[in-house]
Amino acid sequence: MCPRCNSALYDTPYCSINGVLALCLTALILYFPANFYPVIEIQFLGNMRTTTVIQAAIEVCSQGFWVVGIAVLIAAVIAPGILIFSTLIQVLIVKYGLKSRFARKVLKQLLCYQPLIQQMSMLEIYVLALLVCDFQLTDFSKVTFGIGTFCFTMLFVVTIFMQREYKIEHMWEQVDD
Amino acid sequence: MIDDQVDCHQGKELGLVLCHKCKTVNPIANKTCKSCGYAIEVRDYASLQKSWALLITAAMLLIPANLYPISRLTNKGEVVYDTIFSGIAHLVHSGMMPIAIILFTASILVPCLKIIGLGLYLSAISFNLPLSKSKLTKGFHIIEWIGRWSMLDLFVLSTTVALINMGQLLDAQPAPAATAFGLVILLTQVAAKILDTRLLWDRLESTNESN
Fold this sequence. Notes:
Chain A is mainly alpha-helical.
């Protein structure tokens, strides 16, 4: 523990590269259905309405609130995508490509931006937002969750475990030696 | 400047400096980081000003974000505007207390506390206020972590807007406060991110208080 601010100092960094790789691939598989299938559907007067995360963001954009739309798009779609992809590349480089100088350079750059991307990806908040939406909309109509919601929630769970398993200090050690 | 400190030495005295990009410890003589090649600054004094500027802008935007309506609901031809607060009040009236508490925390409590907390932190650096450094740092970490949760309201808004669009019958649309609210979140997050927190430990060293 840091004597000043009580944050954890880094302890013998170890992360199972294969574990991260497995979680990363799972997340990558889930990423596409999570974003292309509707995450929430309502029935209103016999009328079925569905939306995906991307559609919701574009809808807000098209009504002139592009600040909100872009924020939603980045936090719920783009940042998680980049996070998963970047982690995958890092793991692959650590596993197979440490010899080449170009790969090391790429790895360094990715590691530099990793904390920023981790902070921008807000899947957990979106999952909670879906829950809140469910409660708010039950006033009007019947709310159902589709395969997209399942994939999105699973994506969130897998990403949480991926970030738990992933230790950035360990990655930096790989670059240094 | 920092001679009275015995138990905690600053990297500056030991001739070491942390690269803020990749968190590698470098000798102070280095101009660029030995690990990532990024330019190293011992202290980023300008970050204090930038952080103040962003924080003040965010504080000003908080007013329209709360006073203007954030959503517009057309229900059978009738148009109702809702501010953040009145939306939550509706939830309380319809008996959805837990959801109301979540939304209240995420969209009113957190932004306000974040701005007050950051203001306190920055003024402690700027004006040498005798506040406990460890408490300030703890608060700062909480602010950095919890600030993200304000996005909840925008996520809910975008989903609702996309789902409920049936013309005059039932139609939800965002209203001006949405942009202001989005900017408040963005600006406060950037203000916290951009600040060189090492400045706090420099400035208050003279006030001689325990860690």
